[in-house]
Write a structure and sequence with these properties.
With 205 residues, the chain is mainly α. It contains nine helices and three strands; from the N terminus they run βαββαααααααα. Belongs to the mab-21 family.
Length: 205
């Protein structure tokens, strides 16, 4: 269902929507409490606003964000954090757009590591606000025990990267790739390199 933008929106939402006057937002049906068994019954269904077109345009205007989002999603998959949806990762990057603006001279490695630190803050605070409204915490359904587990693991990974980044170009790849992918990377990277190759580079993927 498409709603015309004549509907009055809250100030933050309205300000961001007005930057893309030729886009629409959508009302998407969702099951209450994620109970898909009752989805067909109207009283067990609610509607949420979707700004897919806007989000796509915003990220396209900040091109450095896209590869970082892909790396973060891969990292999420390797760590098996199933409760962290791709939309949450995209929202985190939307919330931190300032990091990607004017970042042409910043390496992909540095941007990725910065976003890992931002993700750690999200886990610690147990909170990730929607990009479109500040009073909606997207992570409300994640238990405190799961937050503690994810926060602890991520902090250990961040410490490992900080400790070894200068001497180990594979330290980030070790946490982003699964075992089979990391072994394959080692095989490919073990081929003889020229003397002029940069030994200080860091391999992400």
């Amino acid at each position: 269902m498409i709603f015309q933008k004549k509907i009055k929106l809250k100030h933050l939402l309205e300000t961001r929507v007005q930057k893309f006057p030729n886009r629409y937002w959508f009302a998407v049906p969702k099951p209450l409490n994620n109970d898909r068994g009752y989805f067909g019954v109207e009283e067990y269904r609610y509607w949420r606003m979707s700004f897919y077109e806007y989000e796509k345009d915003i990220l396209s205007c900040n091109g450095r964000a896209k590869p970082i989002i892909r790396h973060l999603k891969k990292f999420r998959d390797t760590q098996q954090w199933k409760s962290i949806s791709s939309y949450y990762i995209e929202t985190l990057c939307l919330q931190e757009l300032d990091i990607f603006q004017n970042s042409d001279r910043v390496s992909c490695t540095s941007l990725f590591f910065t976003m890992l630190e931002k993700l750690s803050i999200v886990f610690h605070d147990r909170k990730l606000n929607s990009y479109w409204t500040n009073n909606l915490n997207l992570l409300d359904n994640i238990s405190d025990a799961e937050f503690q587990n994810m926060e602890g693991r991520l902090n250990n990974i961040i410490k490992d990267i900080k400790r070894n980044i200068r001497d180990d170009p594979y330290v980030i790849a070790r946490h982003v790739l699964n075992n089979a992918e990391f072994d394959m990377l080692h095989i490919q990277e073990s081929e003889p390199e020229s003397e002029s190759s940069n030994q200080s580079r860091c391999v992400i993927i």
